[in-house]
Design a protein that fits this description.
Shape: globular
Distance between the termini: 16 Å
Structural class: alpha/beta
Order of helices and strands: EHEHHHHEEHEEHHEHHHEH
Length: 362
């Protein structure tokens, strides 16, 4: 008899780019709809689901039994209300008397919070779901500014995990998606299952340390679930990536730059303002995701893929390389641009459909 495999689904962060995994999972559930065993939803096929930031919202939604198509529509129908009232960088006139995003986050979270909270409640028969109500186990990376350390919110899949399962699911979703400069750190309180009020203060997007949460789930499976590495089957979904390069020199050479050999000004303006790009955030999220993908690949097939004939476990990573035309910002709200971005997932799914269905669902 075949030994049962331990299946992991991991979903990257990326703001509205979460429409990519949402679309891919929608197409997947369309295929699962023909099953005769009742297992027509993604969560029914995975032992552990992990997600960071927007991926955390999707992971929690899936684990509560929300269809992927509803998650996709939630992104598409509400992007403008979530991101459409972006604060300007500067407020004021010739001499700004107020600094917009210099002193404030770019977006107000209220609409997103109410939207996710109501969606989660609807999936739980009108009652506020907690992590304990997830239909499959989850682990959701966040950063805790109170303690000053990374943290992972978990369902009680180990005897020592007796804290996080009290947390309302929407609060976990808001915590993991509180991206610096986009939203304020998330602060709330909740009544735990013992009737005690608990603080849940100053939580920040897990993307600051685990934008690609695949390695987090890998370690949880090995240590908390005691799974042999050979029994792992990991399906990892990205949100699109660009090769972050910049080797352009200054177009106009001055006497000073000729002497100093300086390419350009690499200050705050370049990293956070120029061309309305937050390059610093792009860089740390992209580099972290790439590093994890590289390490998982190393564990999967060895150094320089020397073990590709006999991989150590099943692993598939679906992501797409973006260019200037196909890329969108994390807080894009134009419906047509978002739809076009989602169509990239359709292409990727059709290319990898047979392998995905064979490895994880048949």
């Amino acid at each position: 008899m075949n030994k049962k495999k331990f299946k992991i689904l991991a979903i990257d962060g990326g703001g509205i780019k979460g429409i990519f995994p949402a679309k891919l999972l929608t197409l997947l559930e369309d295929d699962l709809a023909t099953r005769t065993d009742g297992k027509t939803k993604v969560y029914q096929h995975f032992d552990l689901i992990t997600g960071t930031s927007t991926g955390g919202i999707i992971a929690l939604a899936l684990s509560l039994g929300i269809p992927a198509k509803e998650i996709y529509n939630l992104y598409l129908d509400n992007a403008k209300k979530i991101f459409g009232n972006k604060k300007p960088l500067f407020l004021g006139h010739k001499k700004p008397f107020l600094l917009g995003q210099v002193f404030n986050s770019a977006h107000n979270r209220s609409y997103l919070e109410n939207l996710v909270r109501e969606k989660f409640k609807d999936a739980n028969n009108g009652k506020e779901p907690r992590l304990n109500d997830c239909k499959t186990d989850v682990c959701i990376p966040i950063y805790d500014l109170v303690k000053g350390n990374p943290s992972v919110l978990k369902t009680p899949y180990h005897p020592s995990l007796n804290r996080d399962f009290h947390i309302p699911a929407y609060q976990a979703a808001m915590a993991t998606s509180a991206a610096p400069t986009y939203f304020d750190p998330f602060t709330a309180e909740y009544l735990d299952l013992n009737g005690t009020i608990q603080d849940f203060s100053n939580k920040v997007d897990g993307g600051v340390m685990a934008n690609n949460p695949t390695l987090v789930a890998f370690i949880e499976a090995i240590k908390a679930f005691k799974v042999d590495i050979s029994d792992l089957e990991i399906f990892s979904i990205g949100t699109g990536y660009r090769r972050f390069t910049d080797n352009n020199t200054l177009k106009k050479k001055t006497f000073i730059t000729s002497i100093l050999g300086r390419k350009k000004r690499w200050g705050l303006k370049y990293w956070m303002v120029k061309d309305k790009r937050k390059r610093l955030i792009e860089l740390f999220m992209q580099s972290q995701s790439q590093l994890v993908a590289n390490y998982i690949s190393l564990l999967h097939q060895g150094i320089d893929k020397s073990e590709n004939e006999t991989p150590n476990f099943v692993y598939d990573r679906i992501d797409v390389l973006l260019n200037e035309e196909s890329n969108i910002e994390m807080d894009e709200f134009d419906t047509n641009r978002i739809k076009n971005f989602a169509e990239l997932a359709s292409v990727e799914y059709q290319e990898h459909r047979t392998k995905i269905l064979t490895n994880y669902f048949y």
